[in-house]
Inverse folding.
């Protein structure tokens, strides 16, 4: 029997508050297909409703709240987590998933958030910078497939636009006179085109 050769390895990434046990950001992933000769429902999201997700998260918080280790087996899944201030970062994988691989993801998430948020990883900062947090997670994991685990690369991709999309704006005058000159230039070019027709 051959091992599961799918790239899908992350079932969920969760950021939960330890103070009021609320969700800050949660992403659940479904495998695109079931492995061959499998009777499990691995292509289906195991927590399809919000109620089931919140129940899972509540139980997970209760189980990990007083844990000294960073890796547990909960509800048949490997869960790795890190505590950062008043939030907990979770990465949930399948029951047979490599714990070291999942732990690398939670460390990449923690370190990239630390870089992006300037070492201020708390609930308020995460909510204020929700866009950066969501983009960082999307750079690390896409549909349950691990893309990048280097926090410096993740932070650089999230914090600035790609170089090929940024036009060269050096030497452009954005003062009132510069905008007026641009308008005059546009008028002249339009008049030239109209005369050519």
């Amino acid at each position: 029997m051959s091992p599961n050769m799918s790239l899908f390895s992350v079932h969920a990434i969760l950021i939960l508050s330890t103070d009021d046990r609320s969700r800050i950001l949660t992403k659940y992933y479904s495998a695109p297909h079931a492995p061959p000769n499998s009777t499990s429902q691995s292509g289906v999201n195991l927590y399809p409703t919000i109620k089931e997700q919140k129940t899972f998260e509540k139980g997970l918080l209760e189980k990990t709240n007083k844990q000294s280790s960073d890796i547990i087996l909960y509800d048949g899944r490997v869960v790795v987590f890190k505590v950062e201030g008043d939030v907990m970062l979770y990465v949930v994988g399948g029951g047979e998933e490599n714990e070291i691989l999942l732990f690398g993801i939670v460390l990449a998430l923690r370190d990239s958030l630390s870089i992006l948020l300037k070492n201020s990883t708390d609930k308020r900062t995460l909510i204020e910078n929700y866009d950066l947090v969501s983009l960082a997670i999307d750079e690390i994991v896409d549909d349950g497939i691990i893309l990048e685990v280097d926090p410096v690369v993740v932070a650089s991709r999230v914090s600035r636009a790609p170089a090929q999309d940024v036009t060269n704006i050096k030497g452009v005058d954005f003062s009132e006179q510069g905008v007026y000159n641009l308008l005059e230039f546009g008028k002249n070019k339009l008049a030239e085109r109209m005369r050519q027709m």
